[in-house]
Amino acid sequence: MIEHLGPGVAGVDEAGRGPLAGPVLAAAVMLARPIAGLRDSKKLSPSRRAELAARIRAEAQAWAISSASTWEIERDNILGATLAAMDRALRALPLRPQRILVDGNRLLSHWQAEAMVGGDDRVDAIAAASILAKEARDREMRLLDQHYPLYEFGRHQAYGTAAHLLALRRFGVTSLHRRQFAPVAALLRKEG
Predict the structure, then answer these.
(1) What is the mean pLDDT of the segment spanning 153-160?
(2) What would the pLDDT profile of 45-61 be if each residue is shown by its tens digit?
(3) Among 36, 3, 5, 14, which residue's Cα sits nearest to residue 90?
(4) CA-based, 20 to 30 A from 50: which of 41, 85, 132, 135?
(5) What is d(CA 163, CA 179) in angstroms, rounded to the nearest whole number?
(6) 96 to 51, 63, 142, 160: CA distances (angstroms)
(7) Cα 107–108–110 angle (5° rounding)?
(8) Treating both helix axes as pointing N-terminal to C-terminal, what angle do 124-147 and 46-59 enclose, rounded to 10 degrees?
(9) Rounded Cα distance, 157 and 69, in Å
(10) Which domains does the chain have, with CATH numbers?
(11) Helix residue spans in the chain (DSSP H)
């Protein structure tokens, strides 16, 4: 059962830690009242996720989305880049939250926050952040797909699917690819 903790609570979550290319996105959401149907974005169909994202943007007390680019992931590693995106999302909120709950087991260094493993299926504000971050990242990957059509980013969002790995072998590594991630690093070593 997902819980609503009140309007002063900001939920924070990310999307895009695991893919082989593209940015990582984070969202922070403060809900004034419960929104039925919220849960972990990975457990929702794309159409239901889009419907809920529209409701969150319209009904939330406050929300913000931020990102960390591929070069930041390369420079700071995926964890550092994810925490930077989360920090930016919190700073972009138009209201200061009274309580901050972050999905996962890592805390943000500049905030009084609580980490909550599985929070995106336990607290509605975190679930809402999960949905907004996932929707925003998928939209970003569809846009990048227009510039890199051979890689089909819009189809697999740059996860390490068989189709994506085949495209990497056939067409090489782009500037969007995360060179430290094992499949990309292995291909680069192989190419010399």
Answers:
(1) 96
(2) 999 999 999 999 999 99
(3) 14
(4) 85
(5) 18
(6) 27, 11, 32, 38
(7) 140
(8) 120
(9) 15
(10) 9-191 (3.30.420.10)
(11) 46-59, 70-92, 124-147, 153-156, 162-171, 182-191
